[in-house]
Specification:
Length: 283
């Protein structure tokens, strides 16, 4: 059983997981495209501070819309039903066997760290290695976001055929190959755009299906705890990634080395993901 529930609940979650993944991926992709294009134009025509002002104002606007326009009904819980505390949940996950959660959290940390390292050095790579202007480098990243948008819905459909774990693993391999290609082959903006497009498709395979995969390993009464648990390795990697990127570039003197380190991290993440086993229910 996926959640310790019956087959009907599992089938309902499969449908909900596809729709939620598609929606979040599409909305996030469209927003990223708008931000990248607007930031590139503002950086070149207005000044260095303009993109940061734009993002700050947009964040305030969206936060206000969320507070004023979104109302959530209070949860209705059975009086006799109790839920374990957060520390109890974490302790059970750490000590559980088989060690599914440890492998999955490790894979999340390494994959998020690889992405953070590459994102930290991607602009420098485009400017100093490929000779692009900084505004053009920001605009070029739109290629990867468009590819993500195009791959969001098919990646969710693919997961229903071959499984979420296999789909996430395929995405990790695809992104790993693009990082390796960038390190040894990319020498022009056009080649970089091609690599970004392939990486966007691989990113869609991972990001659309990773949260439903986490829920597959958890219990249906603790979705909130598992969602928060996913954020821990991801945010830790986001904190460490830029520092690692700076140390690597300082030690090697080349932005290409960042893609090598990121590819190795993704390879290890893929190996850890192979140890995760998700029980399925006949349909």
């Amino acid at each position: 059983m996926l959640f310790g529930s019956d087959c009907k609940n599992n089938m309902l979650w499969d449908v909900a997981g596809i729709k939620r993944g598609d929606t979040v991926g599409l909305v996030s992709g469209v927003a990223t495209i708008l931000v990248l294009v607007a930031s590139g134009v503002l950086f070149e025509r207005v000044g260095r501070a303009a993109p940061f002002v734009l993002v700050a104002l947009g964040t305030l606007l969206l936060a206000g819309l969320g507070v004023l326009g979104v109302s959530e009904p209070p949860p209705v819980l059975p009086a006799a039903q109790t839920y374990p505390r957060v520390w109890g949940t974490l302790r059970r996950l750490v000590t559980s066997r088989p060690r599914q959660w440890r492998w999955l959290l490790g894979a999340l940390f390494l994959s998020a760290g690889a992405t953070s390292i590459v994102e930290t050095g991607s602009a420098s790579f485009a400017v100093f290695t490929l000779g692009m202007r900084l505004g053009d480098a920001a605009a070029l990243r739109v290629v990867g976001v468009v590819a993500f948008l195009l791959g969001a819905v098919p990646s969710a459909r693919l997961a229903t055929r071959i499984g979420r774990r296999q789909t996430v693993a395929l995405g990790l391999l695809l992104v790993m190959l693009t990082y390796g290609a960038t390190a040894v082959w990319v020498a022009t903006p056009w080649a970089y755009a091609l690599v970004l497009g392939v990486a966007g498709v691989g990113g869609a395979l991972v990001l659309v299906n990773i949260l439903p995969l986490v829920f597959d390993l958890g219990e249906d009464t603790q979705f909130g705890a598992y969602t928060g648990l996913v954020a821990v390795p991801v945010q830790a990697a986001a904190v460490l990634g830029p520092s690692v990127a700076g140390l690597v570039v300082e030690a090697t003197g080349s932005q290409r080395t960042l893609f090598v380190v990121a590819a190795v991290a993704l390879g290890i993440a893929w190996l850890l993901l192979q140890r995760v086993r998700v029980e399925t229910v006949p349909r």
